[in-house]
Design a protein that fits this description.
The chain is an alpha+beta fold. Helices cover about 30% and strands about 30% of the residues. An eight-stranded mixed beta sheet has the order 1-2-3-4-5-6-8-7, sandwiched between helices. The protein is globular and about 40 Å long. Bound molecules: coenzyme A. The site of coenzyme A has 21 residues, from helix 2, strand 5, helix 4 and helix 5.
């Protein structure tokens, strides 16, 4: 479990399926991030079992209650196409729409960067956003990510699309100076 000023980051459990469905069924969330909106609580349960099972995948909860309102993850080598190194990983995230605009994601992802560099020994953490996703771009700017390259034909397999993706990076040295 990880903790920030306002948030708890904890493991997902199947008991979170209803809460996950409530937010992940919103068409404003998944498609911009590359996945289809959830269609049923059953589907959300399957996602918890088969997708949110990574070693560094966390449910985001406000401290006042234990409800899962979003996800933040460090996708380790073997679970990301951004690196083939064990000391590098990819940051991914989304947040339920009612909670947007409070700076929750910079807070949660900032803690995951600390965790990655200090606890897991990462030397670089990658993060991308699809062209037009200004909200995610802003989160990465606030965290201090550096532009690395543009992928002009990034496959989005869950949606059967190809998009333009901006790829950013945070090195440990840069993070120590941010
Ligand atoms: C990207 C996301 C995680 C941002 O989380 P957040 O906690 O709201 O982040 P912030 O509060 O720092 O807001 C980031 C930007 O979002 C925009 N924003 C905030 N609240 C908003 C709202 N209610 N409606 C529209 N845009 C909003 C603002 O541009 C803001 O930047 P600013 O603070 O400079 O004004 C969230 O919008 C989200 O889950 N989006 C859909 C999924 C997604 O894009 N995931 C990332 C895939 S790469």
């Amino acid at each position: 479990m990880l903790e920030t000023k306002r948030l708890i980051l904890r493991k997902w459990t199947e008991a979170d399926a209803e809460s996950l469905f409530q937010y992940a069924s919103n068409t404003e969330i998944g498609p911009v991030a590359g996945w289809p909106p959830h269609k049923s609580v059953e589907e959300s349960k399957e996602v918890i079992k088969n997708v949110f099972n990574g070693a560094e995948c966390y449910a985001i909860c406000e401290k006042e209650n234990n409800a899962a309102i979003g996800a933040v993850e460090l996708k380790l080598n073997g679970h990301t196409d951004m690196t083939e190194r064990d000391d590098e990983c990819e940051l991914g995230y989304w947040l339920g729409q009612p909670f947007w605009g409070k700076g929750y994601m910079p807070e949660a992802a900032g803690e995951l960067l600390r965790h990655g560099f200090e606890d897991l020994g990462m030397t670089a953490i990658w993060c991308g956003y699809y062209d037009g996703n200004q909200k995610s771009k802003r989160v990465q700017e606030k965290l201090g990510f550096m532009f690395h390259h543009i992928c002009r034909e990034a496959p989005v397999p869950l949606l059967g699309e190809v998009r333009v993706e901006y790829i950013n990076v945070m090195t440990k040295e840069h993070w120590e100076g941010v």
